Amino acid sequence: MAINYRPFPKDFMWGASTSAYQVEGAAEEDGKALSQQDVINRRPGVADASLASDHYHRFKEDVALMKELGMTSYRFSISWSRVFPQGNGEPNPKGVQFYRDLIDELLANGITPIPTLYHYDMPLALVEKYDGWISRESVKDFAHYARFIINEFKDKVKYWTTINEQSIIVQFWTQKCLIPEKYLDDPQIRYQINHHLNLAHATACKLVHELVPGGMVGAAINTAPIYALTSKPEDALGMLNAVDFRTLFYLDVYFKGEYSKASMIYLEEHNMAPVIEEGDLDLFKEGYSDFLAFNYYSSDCARSAGDATERTEQGVNWTGKKGEIESYETEPDFFQIVRNPACDTTDWDWAIDPVGLEFILRDIYARYGKPLMITENGMGAYDTLTDDKKVHDSYRIDYLRAHIQAIQRAMHYGVEVLAYNPWSFMDLLSTSNGYKKRYGFVYVDRDEEGGSCERIKKDSYYWYQKVIATNGADLD
Ligand code: BG6
User: Fold this and answer.
1) Residues β-bridged to residue 43
2) Can you tell me which atom of ligand 1 is nearest the CA of 432?
3) On the chain, which terminus has fewer CB atoms closer than 10 Å, C or N?
4) Strands 112-118 and 159-164, sheet pairing
5) Residue 57 to residues 100, 102, 462, Cα–Cα distance (Å)
6) Residue 295: is it exposed, middle or buried by C-beta count within 10 angstroms (0-12/13-18/19+)?
7) Catalytic positions, written as ranges
8) Ligand 1 atom nearest to CA at 348
């Protein structure tokens, strides 16, 4: 029997997403100082954050395109080093004004702003001063920044997200943070960074509850289902360990105010546990989350770590040729991640798994019972601009359609989902592949060197416009 899935609720927010350093450009303009991402992304032959998609100068044009698309929410991030160039001290008036103007423009166009306070871009000044998140001092400076921003926009912003992809910062610590060489052989450092991020997250949650009337706050984690590779009981256990280590280790802090036991015991036994001070766990509990925002792209499989004795890291596909990822994460005695053989992948080896979105929505909601919001989901692909200035991205439409259907199925079975903000509103600087890999509804005319940055609507833009206009009823 074909199931008649319930329609999306009337107040469902249809939006899109970006992050500051990936779109704004103007990396050293109007008082902004560099962030660690401005530096990490300087690689020969690959675009960097200095121009990005020139959103800093074109935000009005961009908001007009959002309005025309029909977006009712926009998830973006605030650049800490645009607001506090040195990471602390006095705010930069022009930096604050940019976010005032952006938020006012969104509100004037009926678009709900959903800011993220931190998207990988620690002010460089604080990396130079005390090694960024490695030092506990970072929590104090983040609190100063968060208090200022939340207070500034408390009457205009209801939904706040704190840290983008904490688990990815831990997993890919050298790509998401500038790590001084002396720490590179010490895997404990990444869990110390994580502990400080947890303290920063909890502090921001407390501040939203204190300052914003009716405000709601949550992290923006990256999460994905991890299936057992086979039906062997040992692989099922490997899967359980991987889920604990990659997902529950973060979500238990957000929702229960404690670290998941299995992962913490594993870290202690392998000398990787963070130093936790008195009162830290109380702060976790006080800084509870109202919802979980999450970014979903793909799924993984896990199996028993067998007799592996070495830790291995997850590889990255830097080329855009399928099959380039050579290594997957192994935590000896705990689990081993493997490619999901049941799913096709993008050119960058990310498994395409819309059913996994339904799975993870159902799973997280069953565990924590809190509303969910999708802050990223999308397909990175090579796009071609035709001579008559069109982008026929039917592959992206197929990807998004299947994921929207998955959300609808999860909601049909009772999951509360507040918003869908796919990645990305416009083409932007990829975290690993410059402008070769594109995600946007709006094409940005530039390459690795630069370009006009003219905005061009892709086929997916017109398709999503219809999806929003029909509140998800017409996905054809
Ligand atoms: C998410 C990040 O992990 O994935 C974004 O929050 C990022 O910043 C997106 O751009 C896609 O990753 P990539 O490497 O394709 O840019």
Assistant:
1) 46
2) 14
3) N
4) parallel
5) 14, 11, 25
6) buried
7) 165, 376
8) 15
For the cut 80, the answer to whether the pLDDT of residue 1 exceeds it is: no
The alpha carbon of 143 and the centre of ligand 1 are apart by a number of angstroms equal to 25
Interstrand relation of 455-457 and 159-164 (parallel, antiparallel or unpaired): unpaired
Q: What does each C-alpha distance from 225 to 222, 377, 417 come to in angstroms?
A: 11, 14, 17
For 411-447, the pLDDT digits (tens) are: 999 999 999 999 999 999 999 889 999 999 999 999 9
The length of the chain, given as a count of residues: 476
Considering only CA atoms, which residue is closest to atom 7 of ligand 1? 431
CA–CA distance, 80 with 214 (Å, rounded to integer):
24
Q: Which residue has the tokens 């592996």?
A: 308
Q: How far is the CA of 3 from the centre of ligand 1 (A)?
A: 34
Residue to mutate (ligand 1; options 76, 296, 423, 444; most atoms within 8 A of CB): 423
Contact 402, 476 (CB under 8 A): no
- Across-strand partners of 426? 442
Report d(CA 43, CA 330) in Å as an integer. Answer: 28
What 8-state DSSP symbol labels residue 9?
Answer: P
Token reading at 166: 């904490």
CA separation for the pair 18, 8 (Å, rounded): 24
Other beta carbons within 10 angstroms of residue 29's beta carbon come to: 15
Q: How far is CA 472 from the centre of its chain?
A: 23
Ligand 1 binding pocket, CB closer than 6 Å: 19, 22, 164-165, 168, 222, 295, 376, 380, 423, 430-432, 437
Rounded-to-integer distance, Cα 456 and Cα 392, Å: 12
Q: Average pLDDT for residues 135-155, to the nearest whole number?
A: 98
CA 192 to ligand 1 center in whole angstroms:
23
CA of 396 to the centre of ligand 1 (A): 16
What's the first-to-final CA gap in the chain, in angstroms? 22
